[in-house]
Write a structure and sequence with these properties.
Helices cover about 60% and strands about 15% of the residues. The chain is of the alpha+beta class. Helix 1 runs antiparallel to helix 2 (about 30-65), helix 2 (about 30-65) crosses helix 3 and helix 5 packs antiparallel against helix 6.
Length: about 325
């Protein structure tokens, strides 16, 4: 039966191919006839294939029932596995299903573990970010507080501000002056203003920027501090000029070692003594050799007693 049906399918296939070729290469007036024959052969081939498949499936079902299998699919699978006993195949199926269940359970557990690890990692990352943000916020607060402390540390005392204003006003007038008489008047007015600002000679808590930091030929410290505008407070730079003022910083003075830790450009706060000369032209001793220099770039002789930076107290 199987061989006969297979022969029928083969004959239908060959007929379909034959009529297809005759249809393609026939003369125009005969193409219609061969087309009809080709379609008929094609239908016969399709029906034959269907019948053949149905017969094979029906045979597998019958064989499966005879062998004791539940269906043709189980029968074919068991046969492919080399098993003829339905009970043995049932045991194999049960083992496969159990293995699949175990595999699914293991995969589910692995996925749950991965999900848990991912959740823990995300939680840890969030906690780390929160900690970093909190630390950044604390650091910002510290920096703001330090900036406020620094500003307070270097705040300019009122007497220093007014002293600098007097120096700056005189310098501006000198630059616009047309002759030395006008410059002399500016110096006179500056003297009066400075004498009114600083009643004695001591200044306390003044601030500025180190402009000069060196030693003289004898190794004594020479210091100059710009306090704003054009005003500079400074020691003498040679022993001869310093004979009576003693502004040069002796190497044995603790402040000498302190200055060794500083640099030009450092902001500092200091206590010092100026040399009051109420009978002189400037109220406080000024080192310039010319009237113009005294007004435009004044350097007031100073004996420094204490000097410090904000960073030293941190």
């Amino acid at each position: 039966m199987d061989i006969a049906l297979a022969l029928i399918v083969l004959v239908a296939l060959l007929a379909a191919v034959w009529f297809l070729l005759r249809w393609l290469f026939a003369r125009k007036e005969r193409k219609k006839a061969f087309r009809s024959r080709f379609l008929l052969a094609l239908h016969a081939m399709i029906v034959s294939f269907g019948a053949f498949g149905f017969l094979i499936g029906n045979q597998d079902s019958q064989l499966a029932q005879e062998a004791g299998f539940a269906d043709a699919a189980s029968y074919r699978a068991a046969r492919d596995a080399g098993i003829d006993d339905p009970a043995q195949w049932a045991a194999v199926l049960a083992e496969r299903q159990a293995e699949a269940a175990r595999r699914a359970e293991s995969e589910a557990a692995d996925q749950a573990r991965r999900d848990q690890e991912a959740a823990e990692a995300a939680e840890a990352a969030a906690a780390a970010r929160a900690q970093q943000e909190a630390e950044a916020a604390r650091q910002a607060e510290i920096e703001v507080a330090q900036a406020a402390e620094r500003d307070a540390f270097y705040s300019v005392p009122d007497d220093q501000r007014r002293f600098v204003e007097a120096v700056t006003a005189a310098a501006a007038t000198a630059r616009e002056a047309e002759n030395d008489l006008q410059r002399g008047a500016a110096r006179r007015d500056r003297k009066a203003a400075m004498c009114a600002v600083v009643s004695g000679s001591a200044v306390r808590g003044w601030t500025g920027t180190i402009r000069t930091l060196t030693t003289n030929g004898e190794g004594k410290g020479v210091l100059g501090v710009a306090i704003g505008g054009d005003a500079v407070l400074k020691t003498w730079n040679n022993a001869f000029s310093d004979t009576f003022d003693a502004t040069l910083i002796e190497p044995t003075n603790p402040m000498f070692d302190r200055l060794a830790q500083l640099s030009r450009g450092d902001r500092v706060r200091f206590d010092a003594t100026l040399f009051r000369t109420p009978d002189g032209p400037d109220c406080f001793e000024e080192q310039s050799l010319t009237l113009s220099g005294s007004l435009r770039d004044p350097g007031f002789t100073t004996r420094f007693e204490r000097i410090e930076r904000f960073e030293d107290g941190q």
